[in-house]
Amino acid sequence: MFDRVQVEPSDTSISEAIDAATRGGYDGYIAVGGGSVIDTAKAANLYATYPAELLTYVNAPIGLAQPIPGLLKPLIAIPTTAGTGSETTGVSIFDIRALGAKTGIAHRALRPNLGIIDPDNTRTMPPMVAACSGLDVLSHAIESFTAIPYARRAAAEDPAMRPAYQGANPISDVWAARAMEMVAENLVRAIQDPDDDDARGQMMLAAAFAGIGFGNAGVHLPHGMSYPISGLARDFFPAGYPADHAIVPHGMSVILTAPAVFRYTASVDPARHLTVAKLLGADTIAVGIREAGDVLADRIVTIMRETGMPNGLAAVGIRESDLDALVAGTIPQHRVTKLSPRPASESELRALFSASMTCW
Ligand SMILES: [Zn+2]
User: Fold this and answer.
1) 353: CA distance to ligand 1 center in Å?
2) What pLDDT sits at residue 68?
3) How far apart, in whole angstroms, are the C-alpha atoms of residue 180 and residue 200?
4) Which residues contact 243 (CB under 8 A, 6 or more apart)?
5) Measured in angstroms, how far is the CA atom of residue 25 from the centroid of ligand 1?
6) Residue 14 φ/ψ, nearest 5 degrees
7) Distance (Å, rounded) from C-alpha 301 to C-alpha 309?
8) Burial zone of 120 (CB within 10 Å; 0-12 exposed, 13-18 middle, 19+ buried)
9) Peptide bond into 61 cis (omega under 30)
10) Which one of 16, 77, 187, 289 counts the least CB within 10 Å of its CB?
11) Per-residue pLDDT tens for 142-183?
12) For residue range 232-273, what is the model confidence (pLDDT) as tens digits?
């Protein structure tokens, strides 16, 4: 048993797990926990099976992005949060401390062989953890549904280099759309009443559904912009998280920019953004197509308020003087930001961060 996984793993904590896996020479792995645990197990399995320098398989431009040479040892994932969907994806995300950048490894060989999705495993999840992880599900679903369409993406020169994230497509849409409905119907119930087994069960399924959706289509700006936000956590200690270090939880860091981002991307495909608002429960009957972005942003803000989110980046301790660092930290995330349906250069990213300082 390895129980030293770090919440929001780093290259250091991942390396410790890799060492333990390498020493143990195991036949397989069982990951019991949230995304941090499952992602750590994926990396430990990879490097114990195909030993290499850590950056070998890490996404470009930070790592060398070499394809994984073959199959890994069996991995069974048992999620204890309803958020990441990591039990369904071939993605492992962690911090590279020396570079101050969050990145990871994306390859289908990382995908667990089996996920065991049991709502009994989220019964004691603290409310704020349920809220943040549930909003991560929501953003996975909206981002994959609104990502650049697959047919507009350039083909990889070599099939082995084909990215895990392919852009929105008719199959990922099915999973993302259903996940949005399930989050809209169940997230608040699951947070408010931990004994509501049905709501918690639906949220766990929604996490897996959204995971299948974004594991194929990809995520875009809210995730790309979330990594520097998490990196700037200085004096924010949300209830229910370990109190030994400041943290802006992943789901929170993602949702804080979501209203501004979807207001920005709506002009590219307003009908699709309006569909999202409708799936999330907004009344869209009398809404003109030009209002799609505002209606969707307003609906997300309503859900944020219902789930106890802070009102924007300022409320988690981020200052106007951080804008340069936030933009600089987003640029290397082009693995995901290039999936935005509407490109965002430095000036647009800065405007999106600035608009997210307060959300309502
Ligand atoms: Zn996420």
Assistant:
1) 18
2) 95
3) 15
4) 237
5) 31
6) -65, -45
7) 9
8) exposed
9) yes
10) 289
11) 999 999 999 988 777 887 777 778 999 999 999 999 999 999
12) 888 999 999 988 889 999 999 999 999 999 999 999 999 999
Residue 53 is which amino acid? E
Cα dihedral across residues 203, 208, 214, 219: positive or negative: positive
Provide the pLDDT for residue 158. Answer: 81
Give distance in angstroms: CA of 231 to centre of ligand 1. 15
3-class SS at 339?
coil
DSSP string, 215-275: HHH---HHHHHHHHHHHT-SS---TTS-TTS----HHHHHHTTHHHHHHHHGGG-HHHHHH
> Going by DSSP bridges, is the β-strand pair 75-79/29-33 parallel, antiparallel, or unpaired?
parallel
pLDDT at 161: 72
How many angstroms is it from 291 CA to the middle of ligand 1?
Answer: 27
Low-confidence residues of the chain: pLDDT under 50: none
Question: What is d(CA 245, CA 227) in angstroms, rounded to the nearest whole number?
Answer: 17
Exposed, middle or buried, 320 (CB in 10 Å: 0-12/13-18/19+)? exposed
What does DSSP assign to residue 168?
Answer: B
Would you tell me how many other CB atoms lie within 10 Å of the CB of residue 356?
A: 23
Cα(222) to ligand 1 centroid in Å equals 9
* Beta strands in the chain, from DSSP E residues, in sequence order: 29-33, 75-79, 91-96, 101-106, 114-115
For residue 356, which of 255, 276, 288 has the smallest C-alpha distance?
255
